[in-house]
Amino acid sequence: MQDVCAKQVYLFGTCLVDVFFPQAGMDALALIEQAGVRVHFPDAQSCCGQPAYTSGYPDEARRVAWSQIRLFPNDWPIIVLSGSCAGMMKHHYPKLFERGTTQWAAAQDVSRRVVELTDYLVNDLDIQLNDLGPAIKVALHTACSARREMETLQCGLALLDRLRHVQLMNHEREAECCGFGGTFSIKHPAISAAMVADKVQALLDCGAQQLVSADCGCLLNINGALAHRGEALQGEHIISFVRRRCEGGV
Amino acid sequence: MRTAAQPTATGLEAAQPVVVTQSPFKERAQAALCDRSLRQSFRGAMDFLTAKRAGVFDDPAEWQALSQLGEHIRQRALSKLPDLLEQLEHRCQQNGIHVHWAESTEQANQVVHGILAQHQATQVVKGKSMVSEEMALNHYLAERGVACLESDMGEYIVQLAGETPSHIIMPAIHKSKAQIAALFAEHLPGVPYTEDVDALIQIGRQVLRQKFLDAEVGISGVNFAVAETGTLCLVENEGNGRMCTTVPKVHIAVMGIEKVVEKLIDVAPLYSLLTRSATGQIVSTYLNLINGPRRPGELDGPQEVHLVLLDNGRSQAFADTQLRATLQCIRCGACMNHCPVYARIGGHAYGTVYPGPIGQIISPHLLGLQATPALPGASSLCGACGDVCPVKIPIPALLTRLRTEAARPANEQPHAMRGQGANANLRERQLWRWWRWLNTSPIAYRLLTWLLSRARHHLPKQLKPWTQVRTLPRPAPKTLHELMRQRTGRTS
Predict the structure, then answer these.
(1) Where are the transmembrane segments (chain B) (predicted)?
(2) Which of A110, B50, B161, B421 is buried most deeply by CB count within 10 Å?
């Protein structure tokens, strides 16, 4: 008897992965399944609700959060592909509902089960990676919410560390915000521009051939700024990089 | 309407000039971003301070324990705030300190001026006090014929330049050595231009020394006021605070009502957190504990001590259990030093006495959201401020809450804050409603994301302000939802 269904998880793609980095979702699915875990992708999933929440519209965020919470009825881990969305679900969902209500209890339950993808791969699955790619210099960008709320910085590093031919390149101001901040980059474009300009410069200066991150909002911001400058360097979701390396890609 | 100037150091070089309507905050921020020397000053100073702080909090366990204690002390004090203030008043009076209450800055100014008038004082020296900045005390007194001289070196420089502090700990951090040298040479008779820092400090000290002796009244702030003993604690490095509070025959201390702590023993950990967070010092050069006027047989000290307790919107923050955390602040400035926004635009851009993250959460209480509509939004919520706060103020959460208060129309729900609904905007509200509908309607959501992926080559290339410094991201050919459906063989 094959024991492939012993462990089951939900996958929460996030809206940005859905539209801009869908391959990251498929790569996550493949790697998790390879480890013998069955992955469920609730079809009605959309956004975690963070944009409205941080913009000062908690009522709208609450409605969206509730629509998502109901998609994860079974007591399985909910693997989230973007750090800041995981932070929203883990740390802010319960705050959206009145303490003691059934909705609050459900939000608590989801919060308890939310795991950021790299955290899951490293700490729950203890995934072993066979790096078949050539030697490469890589920079990791960690989003502030992932770094602080989710404390997954070490997980991203650990994942890259399991790839034998990958050399991690440290860059200046790694811990500093890239300037995305959701609607911040729209509402205060000049300040955001100054922040992303410094981030991009630091990434270019560190000599990395590849940029990876587990945070899609930051990736849109940094990639957009890199492309605007005409740079060849582009960031990709860490899971896509990892999977490609395991399949012998660059 | 204005044409935005093109920054040169921000990566905006390639951006097209755009005509935009700017809020005053945005205009000031934009101007600061274009000021290369200002940005260098701030970046350098903030990096220096960040490194110094890290050096004195090098043991994470000790930092954790100490900041937890600090948080606890502040929260305990705030939980009994009305009682502690009464106790403070009582103890101070027992110590011979005259206590005055002021609801507004206008009242506080009147109290201070009243005391000066009683003594016919026209020469006043002042130690650094952000509350007096909040009161615009110098201006108020000047209009009434009283010259108030700032005695903190940074404040003195800022005063000479006719400016306001740009940082709550280092008021003149935005000025370069050369600018200060020019300022001294221009304003002080017989002083030659010199960029020698030691010489500049000596020049400043000599000017101030005589002023201390001439002044009839000394004004100071208060870092902590101890309810148990009626003690006013004053933390400083230059000795000017001690001069202001001991040389003139009258001392007036002004403080926000949140500065009270319960016990004398509470001061030690808060003091340690303050000096280490602010300037990376284990201790400051001076810690003054003022217990009242000169007693018989004592050789120095004022004959009269007054304490002015200022509310100015603080009780509004106090009334709300979440917003109350704002008042935990011990004014160390670490949140500014670590804020990526503050480091780039500097303190003046905020347009408020308290700049940076703490300013963003306290100013709306002092001035009302109507006067500070841009502040809650001027943060990427990166969390660096909350991380370094020695008394664990959850600044990002408070900013999010203030954004909610600013967006919520004034007629909706009871008023939590003065100026509620300052950013209420029907269009934005409709947009978020539409966003909510989209994200709670799976079919509509999938249809729109499908359309985006199909129209990927036909989407606009420009979407300002995003595309001023970034290219617009292009949707993938197929959404994750589609790929998943294909994989499982399902069809919609």
Answers:
(1) none
(2) A110
List Cα–Cα distances, B217 to B152, B210, B238, B258, B350, in angstroms.
Answer: 16, 14, 19, 25, 32
Q: Which residues from B are below 8 Å from A55, CB to CB?
A: 403, 407, 432
Q: By CA distance, what is B397's nearest residue in A?
A: A54
Q: How far is A139 from chain B (nearest CA, A)?
A: 20
Between B26, B30, B470, which is nearest A225 by CB? B470
SS3 for A208? coil
Q: What is the ipTM of this complex?
A: 0.95
Interface probe, candidates B345, B402, B484, chain A, greatest A C-beta count within 10 A: B484
Residues sharing a CB contact under 8 Å with residue B66, sequence separation 6 or more, in sequence order: B269, B272, B273, B390
pLDDT tens digits, B229-269: 999 999 999 999 999 999 999 999 999 999 999 999 999 99
Stated as kind and residue range, the H or E segment containing A49 is: none
Contact between B449 and A19 using a beta-carbon 8 Å cutoff: yes
- Global pTM value: 0.94
d(CA B127, CA B234): 10
Residue B14 placed within a domain: no
Q: Using DSSP bridges, classify how beta strands A235-237 and B2-3 pair: parallel, antiparallel or unpaired.
A: unpaired
Residue B472 lies in a domain: yes
| Residue B141: domain span | 78-316
CB contact under 8 A, A224 and B468: no
Residue B410 lies in a domain: yes
**Is the CB of residue B372 less than 8 Å from the CB of residue B390?**
no
Q: Are B476 and A22 in contact (CB < 8 Å)?
A: yes
CATH number for the domain whose boundaries are A128-246: 3.40.50.11810
Residues of chain A with C-beta less than 8 angstroms from the C-beta of B487: 26, 29
pLDDT in tens, B456-489: 999 988 888 899 999 999 999 999 999 999 987 7
**Do B47 and B154 belong to one domain?**
no
Residue with tokens 């909510």: B436
